[in-house]
Amino acid sequence: MGVDTRKIIELASGLPIASSEKGIIAAFGVYVVMNYNEFFYGLVSKIINMVDDPAAQAVEGQLYNAVSECAYHTFHGARSSMEWRDLILPMIETQEDELHALVAFTNIFGLGYIEIEELVPGERLITVVKNAYDPGRYLEEYGPQPRGRCYMFNACTASYMDLVYGAEYPNGMGTFISEEVECRSMNHSTCRFTARRHLPQ
Fold first, then answer.
1. What's the CATH code of the domain at 181?
2. Domain residues for 90?
3. What is the pTM of this model?
């Protein structure tokens, strides 16, 4: 593998990234908004815990879909940027290199360090996060959760595969579906995600 993931994080983290008065950061060809997560955590936990299980799963499904769409377009924007072309593309020789680069890029946001545990090219990706921020807050503020709460990392795991092994952008979203199989918000020691190729019913 020609990708130096530590170098990608170092290069990307060292860029002069400043936010506007509205908290909007423009870098790597995408816009990132700075805001507080506490309202989101409280709202999600309250809604999910006050409805029956089928309704809760429906809400969680919509959260997953929303984050999937965001991750898919954000990562494509990043890999289409001049910064990616100049700093990261020279390291990429294979599809697997590109996937490793996307994972490394995710780690510049400081929400947890995601790592590849297993990759079967074009078929399956297992990622793990040992220090994800979101589940720690859910557990601390609202107690053990009935299901995983790492919507971002779960959707990201599928999006990596969608972009690298799915149809050419923008038609590859949903080629893979990810499932959070372990979560610290459920008192597991780590958060673990498995993305597999989606087989239409």
1. 3.30.1380
2. 5-197
3. 0.83
